[in-house]
Task: inverse folding
C-alpha cells in the first residue's frame, strides 16, 4: 500500500479510556504531522515531527501525547479526553519540514467520538 | 502569525457553471500557497500549489488559481464545473520562515447540481 495510512478509521471512546491512533507513511518522508479537523473550524495543527524529533507543539493539551518511533510511524496517544475532543484527526507527511514548498500528503483520518 | 480566510462557506452551482472560490491570506513575508480538495469520504489531496514564478497556476481536473500579491489573494477557478467536483475545498498557506506546517482556511463546501 502506498501513501499515508491511518488506523483505526473510526473510534468511539469514553472519557476515562486510553487509546492510540496510528499513522504510517510509505513515501520515504522525513516529516510527519498531526492535525485536528473539527466541524465548521479550520484544520488545526497539533504536532510536527522531523526526523523523529518533535519540532512543534501547537499548545495541545497534555491529554494528547504524540510518539514518533521512526520516520515512518506516528502515534497519538489519547487519555482522559473530553467530548469537545471529538473530531477527525488527520496525519500528514512531507519530504522535509525545512522547505515550505514541499507539499504535505494526508491520510484518510480517524473519526474520533468521545462519549 | 499567518492566517487564511475563505469567504464562501457553501456554494451551490449547476453543472457547466463557472466557479471562483475566494482565498485571502495574512502573512508579512514570502508565502507558498496551496489548494486542497476533500471529496466525500476521501482524504485531503492537493489540487494545485504556488511557489514562485507565473502567478497563474494550473492544477488537476481543470482547476487553476491566480496569486495576486497586492491583494494577498489566491482564488481558485474552474470554467465549467461537473457534478464530480462536489467536495470541500481548502486554501492553505505556509510562510518561508517560521511555522513548519500549513495554516488552513475554514473550507468551502461546493455542491454541484446535475
Result:
Amino acid at each position: 500500500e502506498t501513501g499515508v495510512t491511518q488506523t483505526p478509521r473510526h473510534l468511539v471512546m469514553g472519557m476515562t479510556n486510553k487509546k492510540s491512533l496510528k499513522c504510517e507513511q510509505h513515501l520515504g518522508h522525513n516529516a510527519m504531522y498531526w492535525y485536528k479537523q473539527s466541524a465548521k473550524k479550520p484544520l488545526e495543527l497539533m504536532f510536527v515531527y522531523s526526523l523523529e524529533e518533535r519540532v512543534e507543539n501547537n499548545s495541545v493539551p497534555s491529554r494528547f501525547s504524540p510518539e514518533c518511533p521512526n520516520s515512518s510511524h506516528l502515534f497519538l496517544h489519547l487519555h482522559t479526553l473530553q467530548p469537545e475532543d471529538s473530531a477527525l484527526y488527520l496525519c500528514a507527511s512531507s519530504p522535509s519540514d525545512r522547505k515550505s514548498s514541499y507539499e504535505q500528503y494526508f491520510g484518510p483520518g480517524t473519526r474520533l467520538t468521545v462519549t | 502569525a499567518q492566517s487564511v480566510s475563505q469567504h464562501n462557506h457553501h456554494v451551490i452551482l449547476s453543472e457547466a457553471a463557472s466557479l471562483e472560490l475566494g482565498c485571502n491570506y495574512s502573512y508579512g513575508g514570502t508565502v507558498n500557497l496551496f489548494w486542497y480538495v476533500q471529496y466525500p469520504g476521501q482524504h485531503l489531496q492537493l489540487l494545485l500549489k504556488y511557489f514562485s514564478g507565473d502567478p497563474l497556476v494550473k492544477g488537476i481536473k481543470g482547476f487553476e488559481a491566480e496569486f495576486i500579491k497586492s491583494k494577498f489573494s489566491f482564488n481558485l477557478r474552474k470554467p465549467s464545473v461537473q457534478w464530480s467536483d462536489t467536495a470541500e475545498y481548502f486554501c492553505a498557506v505556509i510562510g518561508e520562515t517560521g511555522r513548519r506546517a500549513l495554516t488552513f482556511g475554514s473550507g468551502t463546501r461546493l455542491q454541484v447540481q446535475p
